[in-house]
Write a structure and sequence with these properties.
Layout: H1 4-9, E1 13-18, E2 24-28, E3 34-37, E4 43-45, H2 48-81
Antiparallel strand pairs: 1-2, 2-3, 3-4
The structure holds zinc ion.
Zinc ion binds next to loops.
Protein name: Prophage protein DUF1660
Organism: Mariniflexile litorale
Length: about 80
């Protein structure tokens, strides 16, 4: 019966983790049900397996981000040296 609020009013999801720009993890404030965005952009239940995938995605995403920033930084250096 603890989920009666969710059954009546629907889940009250908040973002718990930004994995990438498009993939996020959500948890219901009331019953703590967890969701995530899949590769098609749909919300699906967050399973331990999906959490693992998100961990990897997050790592790749942040690695790619820092690499892009580094490349941009190098480009700017090149521009300034000319
Ligand atoms: Zn809920």
């Amino acid at each position: 019966m603890k989920n009666i609020h969710c059954l009546v009013f629907g889940h009250d999801f908040k973002v718990t983790r930004n994995v990438t720009y498009h993939v996020k993890e959500y948890a219901c404030k009331t019953c703590n049900k967890q969701l995530t965005t899949n590769s098609s952009g749909n919300l699906i239940e967050l399973t331990p397996k999906l959490k693992e995938i998100n961990d990897v995605l997050e790592r790749i995403h942040h690695k790619r981000l820092s690499k892009t920033n580094l490349q941009r930084f190098n480009c700017e250096l090149l521009v300034f040296s000319h």
